[in-house]
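**User:**
If convenient, please work through this fold.
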Amino acid sequence: MIQRKQLFRASCLALLVTSLSFGIRAGVLNELGASFHLSNAALSQITAAAFWGFPLAVIAGGFLVDAIGMKRMVLLAFFFHVAGILLTVFASGYWSLFFSTLLVGIANGSVEAACNPLVTALYPEKRTAMLNYFHLWFPGGIVIGTLIVVLFNAIGLNWQWQVGVMLLPAVRYGYLFIKLDFPETERVSSGIPASRMYKAVFSPLFLFMVVCMFGTAITELFTGQWIDVLLKNVIDNAILILTLTTGIMAIGRAFAAPVMKFMRPERVLLASILITSLGLYLLATVSGGTVLIAAVIFGLGVCYIWPTMLGFVAEYVPQSGALGMNLMAGAGMFAVTLYTLFMGGYYDSLILQELPPAAVIGSYLTAAPGTEAFIQLETAKAVVGPKVLLKTLQIPLVLIIAFTGLAIFMTRKNAVKITVQ
């Protein structure tokens, strides 16, 4: 017997572990750099490992989930989560951190590969709204993760404890899924042949949405993952910006159903990217307490983007099935991976421009607090962080044009459909 409420709750718990890994990793990134004397380029490579693992798993899962079933896919996620968390806790340097983060990324991708099609299979009558409810636990988990970092730092528990706490919900969701029966994916239950699925993922509308997913994922996830690094010297407790932003996202997604009834998905995307652009501009240009207002605006902007991108494909390119949603998610994370690698090196190059001529970044990273080199580095970071955000702002500005065109196209398409009927 399919118990859809229990399956949905277990899916939310699995996504909670995924989001905890984002929130906690963002919070301990500076501490990892200090503990292992890692440059920003090295930190970006470690961070990017999660984004390499995610698309690897979610795209592979898109091809496999119909064949092996969603239950096996989510149990693979459980195995990789536990392995990745334990390897991170006992990491000894760059390579162990890199591979542990890669494993966690594979686990996160496997959760999305299994649970996105699971949610649409459980609730075919309200796909986009339920995907928003499901993805509520992504920002919700990031809020919890960042608060764990702040709390554990306050009571003197180091980053190993902060990472290790993720084992508790991981073990819980693994236990729940083992006991439950799963439905078939929508494509399999509907009898849609694989040939039609592959044709759907090469349709112009689907490919357009994949390209847009590159930009929306970078705008949301790169900014969130690096916010503590980029704005640490602009405002005290920069990680709380991520807490506030994701808190707004979680609250917004809790009201997804009335929003989706009031506005079609393409209009939600256009409104969202307009607000996101304003929020990102303010994050890069204001300082002090005003940054928190910018964080609220940015959170409102990115709130519905990821689940609505998936929901749009599920609604308007339904024959793409589980593969379509997983290719979308994988494309987004793949883009974040490449962008993170590029921006890590770009960030270091900007810092070097603010330091004295012939400066070697490594010597400044190991400088003791209070020394002239340390002060110069901190001053440079305060200048450079907002520059990276302004560079990233170019992406949502392009998306405003793309989503305006999408809204016009879908309005005409719906008008033709109504006329024909």
